[in-house]
Amino acid sequence: MAELLFYREPALLDRSRHAGLRYKPSDDFSFSRDTNSVPLLGVEFFEASRHLPVVFADDAQGHRFPLALLSLANSRNGQLKDDGRWNGGYTPAFIRRYPFALTDDKNVCFDQAAAHFAGEAGEALFDGEAPTKTLESVMNFLRQFDAEHARTREFCAALAERELFKPFNLQVMTADRSPLRLGGLFVIDEAKLHQLDGATVDTWFRQGWLAWIYAQLHSLGAFKRLGEQLDTRA
Predict the structure, then answer these.
(1) Which residues have a Cβ under 8 Å from the Cβ of 149 and sit 6 or more positions away?
(2) Range of the domain at 162
(3) What's the domain count of the chain?
(4) pLDDT of 64-103, one tens digit each?
(5) DSSP assignment letter at 40
(6) Which pTM does this prediction carry?
(7) What secondary structure does DSSP assign to 110-166, as a single string?
(8) pLDDT of 145
(9) Residue 100 lies inside a defined structural domain of this protein
(10) In this structure, is residue 1 part of a structural domain?
């Protein structure tokens, strides 16, 4: 299961205990306001690369995984408007799946503290013993998310096996012309990529991984946009 970054009171969804629970979808992403990066699935690289830098970092278990950078500031999501709505660009699936997630044994869990479940308004999740179309839609999204998460893990393992990661240290100029340095991140080594044997290139092309790689490299141009958003005087 992908990490539960925003979930304050996670609980398993139970058709008996939560028979009357109602879910109200929302475009308020304020719960992500204090986060400057989130995990990103490989299949998202295309859309994300137009707006957000895609880099790699090691998770708590020491596994390298892609991240979408939302800001160059610590503990700040620079992609939100004051009212919590997304300020254009691409919204990562890791954020869109909240307040639901799948456990390792494929059960649905949810954040009981989420505003999506406050009050009596909203859509029912159960119709007697059966899930409603609303819950079925949520479950389909979560299953697809977890399947792509596993595929991204496989992709990262293949890159690591062939030593295609290199440290990424960057200095950008912020909106107030202050230099900002970033470290502890990794990107794909394009020079080593060109040294791959033909059989691997063919396999990765058929798996869609080559497209992911070039989308990641393309995304680095978005660092300029994040730098222009950041005024260190604030």
Answers:
(1) 2, 39, 41
(2) 10-229
(3) 1
(4) 999 999 988 777 898 999 999 998 789 999 999 999 999 9
(5) -
(6) 0.90
(7) EETT-GGGSSS-SEESEETTEEPHHHHHHHHHHHHHHHHHHHHHHHHHHHHHTT-EE
(8) 97
(9) yes
(10) no
Cα separation, 95 vs 175, whole angstroms: 27
Task: State the Cα–Cα distance between residues 89 and 219, nearest whole angstrom.
Answer: 13
In a domain, 107, yes or no: yes
The 3-state DSSP class for residue 176 equals: coil
pLDDT score of 178 more than 70? no
Cite the DSSP H helix spans in the chain.
45-48, 93-96, 133-161, 190-193, 198-207, 209-219, 223-229
* Residue 234 domain-assigned (yes or no): no
**Per-residue model confidence as pLDDT tens digits over 130-163:** 999 999 999 999 999 999 999 999 999 999 999 9
For residue 44, the Cα-to-chain-centroid distance in whole angstroms is 9
Residue corresponding to tokens 């839609």: 137
CA atoms within 13 A of residue 90's CA, in its CB half-sphere: 22
